[in-house]
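Why predict the complex rather than its parts? Because the way molecules touch one another can change local conformation, and only a joint prediction can capture that. The input here totals 378 residues.
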Amino acid sequence: MTLQFEVVKVDPSGGRLGRLTTPHGTIETPAFMPVGTAGTVKAMTQEALEELHVTLLLANTYHLYLRPGHELIRRMGGLHRFMAWRGGILTDSGGYQVFSLADLRKISDEGVRFRSHLDGTEHMLTPEKAIEVQRALGSDIGMALDECIEYPGTRERAASAAGRTLAWARRSKKEIETRAPSDTNPQQVFFAIVQGGTFQDLRRENAAELVALDFPGYAIGGLAVGEPHELSCEIAGETAACLPPDRPRYLMGVGKPEQLLDYVRCGIDMMDCVLPTRNARNGYLYTRRGPLHIKNAEFIDDPRPIDETCACVVCRRYSRAYLCHLFRANEILGAILNTHHNLYFFLDIMKAIREAIAFGNLSRFSSELQARLEAGHP
RNA sequence: GGACGGGUGGGUGAGUGGCUAAAACCAGCAGACUGUAAAUCUGCCGCUCCUUGCGGGCUACGGAGGUUCGAAUCCUCCCCCGUCCA
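Output of the joint prediction:
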């Protein structure tokens, strides 16, 4: 395991500036990872992702296992080669699908039995299987299978999921240590995921036990599933504090633009979220003065760019009127341009946060960012 | 000139005596989306009044009459449109 992680600077607020080195490049943290579930960040070419300086993206074990199949990807030389992506790849284990595909699965201590949403066939995803599939994919960072629960959940339910996630992490660890590494990416590492719902003591306990297993990095899962943001922050902050300071901390599935900074201040180094990409395809665009629904009538003849203060290629070239037309006409280019802008927006915030930590003015940046994002409609 | 078929809300189009201000889809107006079963989903979508309620009034299924307690639905005449025959 050769994942290198270096904390370059810690802000008084708790925000960390770091550098994560993978076999596919160095990632400046805190980092925002675009989500590319099926081996593609929807509506984006790999070239376009490179233009946005994306250094790490997410792919999904469960989805790629079902289609096109991990063995095929292995034969094609691993996921990097298959999708022609030179940067880093982190694969989620399928734990989120335990949550999102609740109607199609059955959990037991052994693992998760899924009925495929594609063709109805049954599949068993165990912690060992999740490792095996991810080894075939050859991602740079894999995740141990976890059980992600809904909110609100009882303490009992949270404790049970946390316990199972811990047991699965142990089995994952054993599988990692006893089986051959990925032939396409021998330096692949795996992170464990902390669960425990919204119960601080469960989170602390779960974190401590996982830390004892000595993973090269840790994720905090099961947040941003419906609970208030303040609560997410409390849990994330408390949990992060229980994790080893020299290892990367990944908060899974977050967040909204105005929340990213909060999480950084919780000591989070990595985040991912579908919001920029999915919302883009649904015509919801982010600006420094609040979001806009590009399909709305008010933009039909609006010659301005999405965000007049944005430097992305979309804002430098295309008008709201044109994007409004593309969206209404259901033209593919609309999804492409919208996604490009939204991703730029998220990545730009993270970049600004990193710079603010580097220059030691994160708290001032913080108030400015909040003010800008909350200023209201453009 | 004759024989059929048809004219329904912005569009396509169901409905063929009451449960119909009228299905569904599209368009239109807004909203949601947090480790992606998502280019998806939800609400509104004749006009109007108010005490905003599974509320009242008005208008509406080509036009005009009629039958009926009640008609988009049945009858009569007229006007359009399509196909075929002369």
